[in-house]
Specification:
This protein is an all-alpha fold and 113 residues long. It contains four helices and no strands. The protein has one domain (5-108). It comes from Azospirillum lipoferum.
Length: 113
């Protein structure tokens, strides 16, 4: 499954949205007192997230998960801003850029063998 770096990062972006939405559904249920019905779309979203990670172009699951982590950090800060209304500060932004650079390095770095 040979894909471009851009496609893989896009898959990770959609996976991050699915994971964050799924986790937020549980957050809303347990921490914000919403109905237990929030758990159903949350579970569906988390299943979509897990399936999407299998679509990542990586030879090993651990490498796919490690690179995804950088995208997840950046997507979480976007969620913080766009959904929860709390803008990230400069340290959040710098941290996210470092994480994204790490994700690209993990995905695109030369592999010896």
């Amino acid at each position: 499954m040979e894909r471009t770096l851009g496609v893989t990062l896009a898959v990770y972006g959609v996976a991050a949205l699915a994971e964050i939405a799924g986790c937020f559904a549980f957050w809303a249920w347990i921490r914000l007192g919403r109905s237990t019905w929030w758990a159903l779309p949350g579970m569906a979203s988390l299943c979509l997230f897990a399936w999407l990670l299998t679509r990542a172009d990586a030879d090993f699951a651990g490498r796919a998960y490690a690179a995804y982590g950088g995208v997840y950090v950046a997507a979480s800060l976007l969620w913080l801003w766009l959904v929860e209304g709390a803008p990230p500060d400069r340290w959040d932004a710098v941290g996210a850029l470092i994480c994204l650079a790490g994700a690209v390095l993990i995905l695109a770095g030369p592999r010896g063998g």
